[in-house]
Design goal:
The protein has about 375 residues and is α+β, with helices and mostly antiparallel strands. It has two domains: about 250 residues, 3-Layer(aba) Sandwich (Aminopeptidase); about 70 residues, RNA polymerase II/Efflux pump adaptor protein, barrel-sandwich hybrid domain (OB fold (Dihydrolipoamide Acetyltransferase, E2P), Beta Barrel), CATH 2.40.50. The protein contains seven helices and 18 strands. The structure holds zinc ion.
Length: about 375
């Protein structure tokens, strides 16, 4: 992309907290900065600041971080809701829509924020429901320059649009937290079984992944430039949660995500433990592989998300648009189905089904 002027214009003057949410507005107490009215206020070093806004203990604050000036002269901003608990504790961020067309995470964050109350929270939750604001507006995965934000971390203050947004997110959100949950869906007509991808060799990351208790978890290969890779280099414990497909709400995946986030907050001592029996353990996968199309045509699949499959079990078939000639599609190994394409039109080589091999043999279907 061709760069514009070397220096971006100065951000606009800060506006009053942009919230029309009466619950949030009522809990904002900007006058209390530096003089919290709590019996045991956090040490001054615990004070949370995002952009030029302080987040006083026991409050929720809406912040719009300026990202870029639009062609129209107005500003595009990154919406952030920060909750600083009444008691000290860890800091965790929640983010969604790093790929602008992945919407389930935005809804997960909305429902989690509706539950959380800063007066009963320990530590801080920083929620960014739409990170790729450019892609979100245009309902696309990418930024306007076709860059993938999740290949642009840790970013740079003088780089491309994607690099600058990545840098802003690292400086204003990641740098202030010890934990993060990054919410995604499948891409390009592909839908995913609700699953956690994380660096499970790290004991603390494994502990919170097990607390999340998604239907499946595994250590996926780390992609250079991803938020996950950048966070790990900073020593942050990050979970990537994948559920459903782009531009669609998946109610089961959303509920599993809300429950998982609240269980992680409980495991970190930030929020009360949910009532009821503990959830079933995650199915832990050792590896996952895509089954690809051996020919172009129309793909018919018979497998369900979370279904246990045997090696060489038929999971579907490909036909031409007419006639009875069929090419079977088979499982590469024993495991469970964790994703598939919902678009029947496939070229040879296209990814059809994602199958995970169990770290231990699956005995029953994964919960969806
Ligand atoms: Zn994504």
């Amino acid at each position: 992309m061709t760069e514009g002027p070397a220096e971006p214009p100065a951000p606009p003057p800060e506006q009053p907290p942009a919230t029309d949410d009466p619950q949030l507005a009522a809990s904002q107490q900007p006058g209390e900065i530096g003089e919290p009215q709590l019996a045991t206020p956090p040490a001054p070093t615990d004070l949370l600041r995002i952009g030029d806004k302080m987040v006083p203990p026991g409050s929720a604050v809406r912040i719009d971080l300026p990202v870029a000036r639009l062609f129209t002269g107005g500003w595009l901003s990154l919406p952030v809701t920060a909750l600083q608990g009444a008691r000290p504790g860890p800091r965790l961020w929640l983010d969604a829509a790093i790929h602008g067309d992945e919407l389930n995470g935005m809804e997960i964050i909305r429902r989690v924020l509706a539950v959380l109350d800063p007066a009963r929270l320990a530590g801080a939750v920083i929620a960014v429901p739409v990170v790729n604001v450019f892609g979100f507006v245009q309902q696309t995965r990418y930024l306007p320059d076709r860059r993938d934000l999740n290949r642009s971390f840790p970013g740079s203050a003088r780089g491309s649009m994607a690099a600058r947004l990545a840098r802003l997110f690292i400086e204003q959100i990641v740098a202030k937290c010890g934990y993060g949950i990054d919410l995604h869906t499948g891409s390009q007509h592909r839908t995913n079984l609700p699953q956690i991808r994380a660096h499970l060799a790290d004991p603390e990351t494994r502990r919170i992944a097990e607390a999340f208790a998604a239907p499946m978890m595994y250590t996926a290969a780390e992609i250079p430039g991803s938020l996950r890779a950048a966070a790990r280099r900073r020593g942050v414990h990050l979970l990537v949660y994948e559920a459903g497909e782009p531009l669609r709400f998946d109610e089961a995946g959303i509920r599993a995500g809300v429950d998982g986030v609240l269980r992680v907050l409980a495991a970190l001592g930030m929020w009360e433990a949910p009532e009821g029996p503990p959830p079933p353990r995650s199915f832990e996968a050792e590896e996952a592989a895509w089954v690809r199309a051996r020919r172009s045509g129309i793909f018919h699949h018979s497998a369900k998300l979370g279904e246990p499959v045997k090696r060489h079990q038929q999971l579907g078939y490909i036909t031409p648009p007419w006639g009875n000639e069929t090419t079977p599609v088979k499982a590469p190994f024993e495991g469970i189905v964790i994703g598939f394409t919902s678009n029947p039109l496939v070229y040879r080589g296209d990814a059809l089904l994602h199958v995970a091999r169990a770290a231990r043999a699956p005995s029953r279907p994964a919960r969806v």
